[in-house]
Amino acid sequence: MLKLFIFIMLICFVTSEYIKTFSIGCKKFNKSDLFSKITSPLFFKKYLKLTKGSNVKYDPPIEDDLVPVKFPQKIQYDSENVFSSLISNKINIEQTWDIEMQKIKGLIKSKYLTISIEIEMEDIDSMGYLNCKGTLLDKHYLVPKSIFDNIIVDLRDKIETIINSNEH
User: Fold this and answer.
1) pLDDT of 152 higher than 80
2) Which of 1, 23, 124, 136 is exposed most, by the fewest CB atoms within 10 A?
3) What structural domains does the chain harbor?
């Protein structure tokens, strides 16, 4: 009986999802403004600049900052390694973003990690909030789960920087 219990616990541990959430409150934007801001070409370009992305490929192409992004949007780029000193210096990252029922859903994949992101906006007391849920779907055995925590904090910081910038 004890062996069965340990086996069931092990299965639950191995197959359970690892989830992190965050919210960003914005006094100067409502839900609609936030949605427009983070689905714009400038948002994606600023994000890639902050991540030091190189060899960027957009599908469909993003050529004009004034033309709305077409979804689903796939972005491939090379980025600095954040995973481990055991892994090469640059890694290729593929992000796919889509909009479903006023939610922005993303899948971020690399050779070492796969994360799903869900972003939703809401208004509370005349303030816009961006709520994000990140789920670790898969990871390379050399990559500790704590890297996922760091990636989510980094994502939050970059989104907050872009939202609060005056250029947008």
Assistant:
1) yes
2) 1
3) 14-164 (3.30.530.20)
